[in-house]
Amino acid sequence: MKSDIIILGIETSCDETSAAVVKNGREVLSNVIYSQIDIHKEYGGVVPEIASRKHVEKINSVIYQALSEANISLVDIDAVAVTYGPGLVGALLVGVSAAKAIAYIMDKPLIGVNHIDGHISANYIEDKNYEPPFMCLVVSGGHSNLVYVKSYGEYEVLGATRDDAIGEAYDKVARVLGLGYPGGPLIDKVAKEGNEAAINFPRTYLEDDSFDFSFSGIKSAVINYINTCKMKNIDISVPDVAASFQQAIVEVVTVKTIKAAEKLNINKIAIAGGVAANTKIREMLKKACDEKSFTLNYPKIHLCTDNAAMIAAAGYNKYIKNEFDELTLNAVPNLKF
Ligand code: KG4
Ligand code: ZN
Fold first, then answer.
1. How does residue 211 score in pLDDT terms, banded at 50, 70 and 90?
2. Cβ of 258 less than 6 Å from ligand 1
3. Same domain, 152 and 106
4. Does some domain include residue 67?
5. Which end of the chain is more exposed for a tag (fewer CB within 10 A), N or C?
6. What is the pTM of this model?
7. Shortest-distance Cα residue to atom 23 of ligand 1
8. Residue 29 lies in a domain
9. Which residue range is the domain that position 248 belongs to?
C-alpha cells in the first residue's frame, strides 16, 4: 500500500452540496460546501425537489473546486467515497451518480458511506490521536442516537429517538418563535440573552434504564406555552423561551450520555452532527465530563453540519479494510445505522 491515501468525498444527502479531499482520513486538503439554506429559507424548510435540482446544478463545479483547492486531479485519488443514505432520495442520487461516474471512468474504488458514520468520523479529522472506543452522542436534523463506537466503523446503537430528532425540535420551536430557518443556530444565539430558568419545560427521560430519547413532548410544551400566552395577551420573551427550551433538552441528552458512558465503563465522550455545533450542548457536556474526569471531543463547527470531509474520513476507514462497493450502489433514503 502506498503511504498516503487520498479520498475524494461527496455529500448531497440534504441541502448541502459538498466535495472534499482528505489525506489519510485526518488531514483536510479541501472541503467545499455549497449551502442551499438561503433558497430553502423562504419555504421554512428543505423542499426536496428544489434540493435535488440545485445539487445537479452544483455538483460538478463543487467537485472541480475541491480538487483544484487540494491541488490534485482525479488520477491522484485512491478512492471516491459518497453518502448513499439516509437522506432525501433525489438529493442522494445526485452524489451517488457523480461518485459512480468518477469511479467508473477513472477506474477507482467506490465506497458508499452511511451519513451517520460520516458525522461520527468528523471527530477523527485534524486530531491524529483521537481513536475508538468512545461514546458518541449523534445529534442532527434527522437523527438522535447514543452510539458506542467500538472501533473504526463498528457501532452499537444504545438509544435512538422514539419520535422527533433533536434538530427537528430546535427547528420547529424556532419557527413558532418566528426566528426563521434553520432554527438551531438562531435559538443558540438568542438563548444567550435569555433566562434558562424562566420556564420549567418538561424533561423526558423515559424508562430508568432506557437510552432512547423523546423530543416531541417538549416541542408540544413550548407550542402550548406560546399559544396560552397569546390567548391571555401575555408578552412572550423569545430569549427566555429559547433558553428554557434549550436548557431542558440539553439537560436530558447530557444526563443520558454520561449514564451510558458510565454503564459501559468508558471515559471518552464525543458529540457529532449539526446540533453538536450548539454552544449549550458543548458547555453542559464539558462540565459534566470534567466532573467525572471524562474527556469530551467535538468537531469544529463547520465539520459538525453536513460536509464531505467527514464522508471522506469515514470512507478512509472503509478503504483500509477493503470495504468497497460495486457500481450498482444505489441511494438508500432510509438506510439503517
Ligand atoms: O447534521 P446536519 O447538518 O444535517 C442532518 O444530517 O440533519 O444537522 C442540521 C441540524 C438542523 O436541525 C440545525 O438547526 C441544527 O442541526 N443545528 C443546530 C446548530 N447548528 C445547526 N442546532 C442547535 N444549535 C446549533 N448551533
Ligand atoms: Zn447530517
1. very high
2. no
3. no
4. yes
5. N
6. 0.97
7. 184
8. yes
9. 132-299
Work out the pLDDT band at 128, boundaries 50, 70, 90. Answer: confident
Burial of residue 56 (CB within 10 Å: 0-12, 13-18, 19+) is middle
- At 1, the pLDDT band (50, 70, 90 cuts) reads low
**pLDDT value at 28 more than 90:** yes
On whether both 139 and 90 belong to a single domain, the answer is no
Radius of gyration of the chain (CA): 20
Residue the block writes with cell 482520513: 25
Alpha helices, H only, 115-237: 115-121, 166-176, 183-191, 216-231
Check if 109 has its Cβ closer than 6 Å to any atom of ligand 1. no
75 with 213, same domain: the answer is: no
Statement to judge: residues 72 and 141 lie in one domain: no
Of all ligands present, the nearest one to the C-alpha of 141 is: 1
Is the distance from the beta carbon of residue 142 to the nearest atom of ligand 1 less than 6 Å?
A: yes
Q: What are phi and psi of 157, to 5 degrees?
A: -85, 115
Ligand nearest to the CA of 117: 2
